[in-house]
C-alpha cells in the first residue's frame, strides 16, 4: 500500500502496479497486468530493471537478483519482458514486450532505504523525521498526525511499530529549510521536491518501539538473557 502526504513519499512494499511478495524491500516480483498480479520471468530481468523497481518502491539500490531465495515459483507461460534503461521512475514506464517463456519467476533484494532517519530522540528509532534528497538532510513538514504513515516509517527503518506520532512546532525565529510535501511532486516515491519556508512550519516527530534483540551472555559460567532496545 502506498503512503501519501500530499505527494507520494514511499511505498510499503508495493505500488498500484508492482509489488515484492515477501518483505518491504525484497521478494518475488509481481506486476499488475490486465487487472491481475503476474510474476516476471527471471531470465530477462536484469540490473537496470531492478534499479527501477527498487526506486519505485522507495527502497535503496538493488543488492541481489535471486528468485530462488523466495521460492521456486514458475513464471507464467506468457510473461512481459521489461527493457528498462535504469533511469525510469516506474517499471511500467519502461519499454516492454510479451514473450513466451519457460522458467522461474524473478525475485530481487533492494537495500533498505537510507533516505529517512529520526533525529533528536533517545535512540535511533525516535525523533524528528528527516529525509535525504539531493544529498541534503532536512526535516519533513507535517500538518496532522497519521499512525499509518508512522507505521510505514517505523517499518522501513526496521524499528518495530509506532508508539506516538505528533507534530512539533518549528521555532518562529528559525530560518531552517525543510522538505515540503507538495501535491505537485512527481517522479519516484521518495520525496523529490522541496520548498524553502521560513516560518509557521511543523515537523513530524515519531517514536517507534525499536527492535528487541535477545542474546545470551556468559558471565561467571552463568547464562543470562539480556534484552536491548535498539
Automatic annotation (TrEMBL):
| Main subcellular location | secreted
UniProt xrefs under SMART domains: SR
Q: Which GO terms describe its biological process?
A: zymogen activation
| Gene Ontology cellular-component annotations | extracellular space; plasma membrane
Quote the InterPro entries the UniProt record gives. Answer: SRCR, SRCR-like_dom_sf
Which Cys residues form disulphide pairs? 84-94
Q: Where in the cell is it found?
A: Secreted
Keywords carried by this UniProt record: Disulfide bond, Glycoprotein, Repeat, Secreted, Signal
Q: Name one Pfam family in it.
A: SRCR
Q: GO molecular function of the protein, one example? A: serine-type endopeptidase activity
Q: Residues in domain SRCR?
A: 18-121, 116-209
Name the PANTHER family on file.
SRCR DOMAIN-CONTAINING PROTEIN
The protein in question is named SRCR domain-containing protein
Q: What is the lineage of its organism?
A: Eukaryota, Metazoa, Chordata, Craniata, Vertebrata
Amino acid at each position: 500500500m502506498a503512503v501519501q502526504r500530499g505527494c507520494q513519499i514511499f511505498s510499503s512494499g508495493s505500488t498500484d502496479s508492482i509489488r515484492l511478495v515477501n518483505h518491504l524491500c525484497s521478494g518475488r516480483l509481481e506486476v499488475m497486468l490486465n487487472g491481475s498480479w503476474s510474476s516476471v520471468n527471471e531470465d530477462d530481468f536484469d540490473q537496470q530493471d531492478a534499479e527501477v523497481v527498487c526506486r519505485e518502491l522507495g527502497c535503496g539500490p538493488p543488492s541481489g537478483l535471486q528468485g530462488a531465495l523466495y521460492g521456486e515459483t514458475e513464471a507464467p507461460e506468457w510473461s512481459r519482458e521489461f527493457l528498462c534503461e535504469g533511469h525510469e521512475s516506474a517499471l511500467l514506464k519502461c519499454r516492454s514486450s510479451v514473450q513466451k517463456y519457460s522458467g522461474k519467476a524473478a525475485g530481487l533484494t533492494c537495500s533498505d532505504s537510507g533516505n529517512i532517519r529520526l533525529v533528536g530522540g533517545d535512540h535511533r528509532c525516535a525523533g524528528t523525521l528527516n529525509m535525504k534528497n539531493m544529498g541534503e538532510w532536512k526535516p519533513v513538514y507535517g500538518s496532522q498526525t497519521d499512525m499509518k504513515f508512522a507505521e510505514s516509517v517505523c517499518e522501513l527503518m526496521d524499528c518495530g511499530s509506532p508508539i506516538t506520532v505528533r507534530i512539533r512546532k518549528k521555532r518562529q525565529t528559525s530560518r531552517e529549510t525543510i522538505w515540503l510535501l507538495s501535491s505537485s511532486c512527481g517522479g519516484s516515491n521518495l520525496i523529490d521536491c522541496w520548498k524553502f519556508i521560513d516560518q509557521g512550519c511543523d515537523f513530524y516527530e515519531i517514536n517507534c518501539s525499536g527492535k528487541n534483540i535477545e542474546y545470551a551472555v556468559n558471565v561467571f559460567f552463568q547464562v543470562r538473557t539480556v534484552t536491548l532496545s535498539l
